[in-house]
Write a structure and sequence with these properties.
- By secondary structure, the chain is mostly helical.
- Helix content is 93%, strand content 0%.
- The protein has one domain.
């Protein structure tokens, strides 16, 4: 039973050592320990605040990135639209140029055809006139082959001249 009930001297010295230990810990250990704990708490608080600020900045940056992506997509769409319009304009201009050149070629061909037609008609008239002269010459030679026919023609011409 001695183990369960301590002596008075043992209690006194245990209490005295406990109080001295408490005073020494209070004077020398509690302040540095509390300072270290408070500093750690402050660092953790600052780290949490920094993490929160970083999180907000990330949200802002993400929003900016999304806006940049939207602008880039809009610009890409605009560029594609402009390219399509330019291509369409180029095709239409090429078609118009081809039509104009075709019309010029047709007009040129028509003028060449008309010139050749006029030349052919003129040549035909000259040929017809030459044939007519040859026929007339042959008819006149046949009609004037005898002296009596020549005299009759001369008299007829004189009569015509007198009448006019």
């Amino acid at each position: 039973m001695d183990l369960v009930t301590p002596d008075m001297g043992l209690l006194f010295w245990t209490g005295l050592v406990f109080i001295i230990l408490m005073l020494l810990l209070t004077k020398f250990a509690w302040k540095p320990i509390l300072g270290a704990v408070n500093a750690r708490e402050q660092k953790i608080t600052e780290a949490l605040e920094l993490a929160e600020k970083t999180k907000e900045e990330m949200k802002v940056l993400q929003a900016q990135n999304e806006n940049l992506l939207k602008e880039a997509r809009a610009e890409r769409d605009s560029m594609i639209k402009d390219a399509k319009e330019t291509a369409s304009k180029m095709v239409n201009d090429a078609k118009d140029t081809a039509k104009e050149e075709g019309a010029k070629m047709i007009a040129s061909a028509k003028s060449v055809i008309n010139a050749e037609k006029s030349a052919a008609i003129s040549e035909l008239k000259n040929t017809v006139a030459a044939f007519s002269l040859e026929i007339a010459e042959k008819v006149v030679r046949e009609d004037l082959s005898s002296d009596a026919k020549q005299k009759a023609l001369a008299e007829k011409l004189v009569e015509d001249i007198n009448l006019n």
